[in-house]
Write a structure and sequence with these properties.
This protein is an alpha+beta fold. It is built from 12 helices and 40 strands. The strands form 9 sheets. It has an 8-stranded mixed β-sheet with strand order 33-34-36-35-37-38-39-40, sandwiched between helices. Strands 10-11-12-13-14-15-16 form a 7-stranded antiparallel β-sheet.
């Protein structure tokens, strides 16, 4: 049971204690709040609702500020807008948004005779001759949540395979639509995962399903017009460390089945023209060797991005018809992390990162390789949607901390960069009014940690500015510079926004990742604290005006630094935080646990891993100290980081350090990404921003 809060008293909820013992490697731990893991327990829902009521009461004085921030986000956004159309076959495909509507509308329009440039409208209105393929607002109906898992048009353009999640638990229902008639076919498959692939005869669709631990492990073959009960399993992965993915090569020659753990992978191919054939193995898995495959029909070869003897990856090739020996194409270059390889007619594009920045390199079939240059010192660039193999133009996505999301078409032969669209920022936004910086903190072991910083031009460096320090630091995921309209509501109020590119991420290459995982995980946390110290020493802010923010594995980071250096921060925002890491990784029945052992270690088998994880897991290390104010945000239907982790954490903080200011906000109808509709997401961001602003006055 729970003692609820009221608006008048704003008393924090006190969760009941139900002692539950956990014993591993001779260590017995009593967990008073393990009961919160049961959604079926009415007391759990009661507690979450009580926490929501308390949070609402405690932040009632921020309501006007929240509304102001929400209005700022809304008025800066062009609500009725149109994406840059992408050509595939005889159609331009694009997405529209309409003012007042939560979700995008997926459309296409036939390519006009002689038309080469993507069409557009100034006001974001429908293109003449538009065909609506799927309206997310119609599909969502009255549901609180809506997300697409796959959106896949058949090669002939006649059918659409799409899957929908109306709960937030990332368990989708797959449907097929005849685009010639607009009819949704009787074909329907429940509880599918992301990803799909069509055969070239448009009669067969491949899709994925998950096991009880939400691990995609089966690839199925479905014949259009037949019942799901007749579908055939074409691949099943028994090893619980591995996930399975499926997709169609850009050449449309192969269905690619990708099987991967955190550190090992293998690929199987099915000819898309012969969907009934058994999958062909490209190369058997070897522990610690990762590889991806790209079909290049120009040379009838497979391009293989791999780390076999190449920590930062290299590129090889092998014959497509009979894969065998890997022959070197791009040698390993330590410090240059190769991220992807994409084959087009007459050239190959290599995506990479070096010195903390992303880049693109072109390998023409004839001539010398060359890199595409960009003007800003800090930026992020990547290939955008490029579905056609036969092209001399590639679509790029570019952004920075001060440059809104920008779409370019780049001519590979002419080396011309054509601006197709920059995301509008209404209200007189001027990039010249802001400045961005790259600075370096020094970790306790002497490692230099990059920090990306954005602020209003002329911001004083006397410690008076409020600041937000954002971090993640896991899974080799890089927090490359990005533009954010909601962030303007902080920066325009004088905030400095900084991103700590800490170990465990991928910003500085594979070694950067290796130095922040397993038994080196604490580097992630101490790096973040070093970045906070650097911001203060450099005059960007002061500890009394610095708020830390992170989500998911970045939420683990938030909980860890709260225990490690609570005095460094004026507030902490932890969104869908992985704060009960040890208990979760000890339970192989939970989603993701077994595959995560190669990221965190296996505390079930290893006493050393158990002891190490116990020493940093936030929930395990709550002590009676002066914590900064903490806002934890979670979602009831989150499959990746279960809601009970932050719920238990807040309950324990209240019990052990009762003088602190702790808030828990649970979205009762959302998943890992929070609210799904754009207006709801803006309201959530306004809630967090108002709390941050309030923390620093």
């Amino acid at each position: 049971m729970t003692t609820p809060a009221t608006s008048s008293t704003a008393a924090p909820p006190i969760a009941k204690r139900v002692p539950t013992e956990r014993t591993h490697h001779g260590d017995t731990v009593v967990d008073d709040y393990a009961w919160l893991a049961s959604k079926d327990d009415p007391d759990t829902i009661e507690y979450l609702k009580a926490e929501n009521e308390y949070t609402e009461a405690r932040t009632a004085d921020q309501a006007e500020l929240r509304e102001t921030v929400f209005t700022e986000i809304k008025t800066r956004t062009k609500e009725t807008d149109l994406s840059v159309p992408v050509r595939k076959g005889g159609y331009w495909y694009y997405t529209r948004t309409v003012e007042g509507q939560q979700y995008g509308i997926h459309c296409r329009r036939a390519v006009a005779p002689g038309e080469t440039d993507p069409p557009s409208t100034e006001d974001g209105s429908p293109l003449p001759g538009e065909e609506i393929l799927l309206d997310g607002n119609v599909e969502a109906g009255d549901s609180e949540f809506f997300a697409l898992g796959t959106f896949d048009v058949s090669p002939d353009g006649h059918h659409l395979a799409y899957s929908v999640d109306l709960a937030g638990d990332e368990r989708f229902t797959l449907r097929l639509k005849d685009l010639r008639t607009g009819d949704v076919l009787p074909d329907e498959v429940r509880n599918v995962f992301y990803g799909s692939a069509w055969s070239v005869d448009n009669a067969t669709l491949f899709y994925l399903t998950v096991d009880d631990a939400w691990r995609p492990y089966r690839v199925w073959r479905h014949s259009v017009g037949t019942a799901a009960a007749d579908d055939v399993i074409v691949y099943e992965e028994p090893d619980e460390r591995y996930w399975v993915g499926v997709g169609l090569s850009r050449s449309e020659a192969y269905v690619i089945i990708d099987v991967h753990s955190k550190v090992t992978s293998e690929v199987h191919l099915i000819p898309a023209a012969d969907p009934g054939r058994s999958p062909q193995l490209v190369a058997p898995r070897r522990q610690g060797v990762e590889y991806d495959v790209e079909h290049d029909p120009t040379g009838s070869r497979l391009l293989i991005l791999h780390n076999d003897g190449a920590q930062d990856f290299a590129v090889a090739w092998t014959p497509a018809e009979e894969p065998g020996e890997w022959r070197s194409l791009i040698e390993h270059s330590p410090g240059t992390r190769l991220l992807g390889v994409d084959a087009f007619e007459g050239f190959v594009v290599v995506s990479l990162r070096r010195d903390g920045l992303t880049g693109l390199r072109i390998l023409p079939a004839e001539g010398e390789p060359f890199a595409i240059a960009f003007p800003e010192p800090l930026y992020s660039v990547a290939l955008d949607a490029n579905p056609e193999f036969s092209t001399q133009t590639i679509r790029l996505h570019y952004t920075s901390l001060v440059t809104p999301d920008t779409v370019y078409d780049y001519g590979v032969r002419t080396r011309d960069m054509i601006l197709r669209k920059q995301k509008p920022v209404l209200g007189g936004f001027d990039p010249a009014a802001y400045e961005q910086h790259r600075e370096w903190a020094e970790a306790s072991d002497g490692t230099r940690i990059p920090i990306s910083i954005v602020c209003r031009r002329g911001t004083a460096r006397d410690g008076s500015a409020p600041a937000v320090l954002y971090g993640y630091g896991s899974y080799e995921t890089s927090m490359d510079p990005w533009f954010s309209i909601p962030r303007l509501s902080l920066v325009d109020r004088g905030f400095v926004f900084a991103v700590a590119h800490i170990r465990g991420g991928g910003e500085m290459g594979r070694q950067w990742y290796d130095d922040g995982k397993l038994l080196a995980k604490k580097n992630t946390f101490t790096d973040f604290v070093a970045c906070a110290e650097h911001l203060v020493k450099s005059g960007w802010t002061s500890s009394s005006r610095l708020v830390a923010r992170g989500g998911s594995a970045g939420g683990l980071l938030m909980g860890a630094v709260a225990n490690l250096s609570p005095e460094r921060f004026a507030g902490i925002v932890a969104q869908v935080p992985f704060v009960d890491a040890l208990n979760s990784i000890l339970d192989p029945s939970l989603p993701l646990t077994v595959i995560e052992w190669e990221e965190w270690g296996n505390p079930l088998e290893s006493p050393a891993v158990y002891e190490y994880m116990k020493s940093y897991t936030p929930y395990e290390n709550v002590v009676a100290t002066d914590y900064p104010p903490i806002l934890a945000v979670t979602s009831l239907h989150d499959t990746r980081v279960l809601y009970h982790e932050p719920a238990k954490w807040i309950a324990r903080l209240r019990a052990v350090a009762p003088e602190g200011d702790y808030l828990l906000k649970t979205e009762m109808g959302a998943g890992h990404g929070g609210p799904s509709g754009r207006y709801d997401a803006w309201k959530e961001e306004a809630f967090v921003a108002a709390w941050i602003i309030d923390r620093v006055g």
